[in-house]
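In response to reviewer comment 3 from the previous cycle, which asked for concrete evidence that the modeling workflow produces usable outputs, we include below a single protein chain processed end to end. The sequence was submitted unchanged, and the resulting structure tokens are shown without manual editing.
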Amino acid sequence: MPGKKIKHSIKTRMIVLFSVVLIAALVTCWLMNIVFLERYYIRNKQKVLIEVFQMLDEASRQEEMETSEFLQRLNTICERNNISPFVMDASGQVKICTKRDFELNQMSHRLYRYLFGQFSPNDRSKILLEEPYYMVCINMDSYTNAEYMEMVGSLAEQELFLIRTPLEPIRESVLLANRFLAYVGVTVLLMGALIIQILAKQLARPLLELARLSERMSNLDFTVKFSGKVDDEITFLGNHMNQLSEALEHTISELKTANNELKRDIEQREKIDEMRKEFLSNVSHELKTPIALVQGYAEGLQECINDDAESRNFYCEVIIDEASKMNQMVKNLLALNELEFGNEVVTMEHFDLTAMIHNILQSAQILFEQKQVRLVFEEQEAIYVWANEYKLQEVFHNYISNALNHVDGEKIIKVTIQRQKEQVRVGVFNTGNPIPKQDIEKIWDKFYKVDKARTREYGGSGVGLSIVKAIMESMHQAYGVINFTNGVEFWFHVDCSKVDCSK
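The workflow returned the following structure tokens.
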């Protein structure tokens, strides 16, 4: 009510509120620095170590490790980040070492202790990251009595490496940052208290007037007007409150319009939700086969199916390759969604189709063995075609996966390549039951399932063939399916030059 005495001064509340918020913000920043800043520095150092490893690994693959250009790049990044790399080949010859000569034996000794597992649990402070080819950890160096972040492992050409960086400069930086933040916080707090005192006094007066104005408007008294003398935000607010009564009818109209917009937004949201569900289903479908491969080869390693080192390395390579494909597959499913809307530009590449098919079939060999399927593929000559290699891999993967899921009877899967002037026809045939005629045209639709019970049995989502359709149409190539008395053949066309097709 007008004239009612205010028990809690808005000025006092603003001062208290702003002071509490300011103190809380400063304390929060300080605590976050204490808790997370060192971790943040360590995480960044870890990323730099991985970057140096990748440089060394790439140089090892390209045999550029001892070139002056590479050494200059390596020294630049190492000096900038206070990193010391050490690399030696299988014969024990040092290839890279930025340390002084008297520290060479020390680095070599630590590397051998890492590789041969001679570090005790007390020596190893903390393991940050373990990967197939390297490990990142924090250890105390007994020679220098200092803590280091170290990465140890092997490169592509079997060189052994040790990369280290001291942690003491990081902790000194964190301590200095926290101390500086504390000084700044105290200064800001004192200045903020003074400024808040002044601002609260200036803001309280017009806010009280606005409060009384809003109270009268709540009683539907729209004749009252705000009279502000200072051209500021509060006066601006008061002027708008003056217009509130005049704009009431217009506001009601806007609310009705907003209601209609809200309904459309809800419909759009439902559509987006359906697209999300469809996308998740696509991801689940596409990741199933590579996950099965990784699991199969991992189980093979666990059960020691092959004791020789060559076979174990092959199993590991397949696991790593399929894991990489899973990562890339998720990215390309996003592009596939764009592909269906015609927004993605398909990059055409010149590659060996025969080699691509051989690699996919070799990777899926364990699946053929598990299902006791006989694979027939006799093509040996290289056939170079023009297409998007990764997307064509997806098409062939889907065809093979579909064949494995539906093969029956004699359990034969036959892959054929036929040259046709400036095109190549690839077919994947599997013995089993033909597709019913009424389902032939519908199998390319999303989520359509001919045999729902069997689809559920092998975990299919009904999107594999729709993905094939989207990819082939994006490359403007033909595709289809043919029924035979003893099975089904899925096929697609891809372009090649006259020279490539005639070989």
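The longest strand covers residues 146-154. We consider this sufficient to address the reviewer's concern, and the full set will be provided in the supplementary archive.
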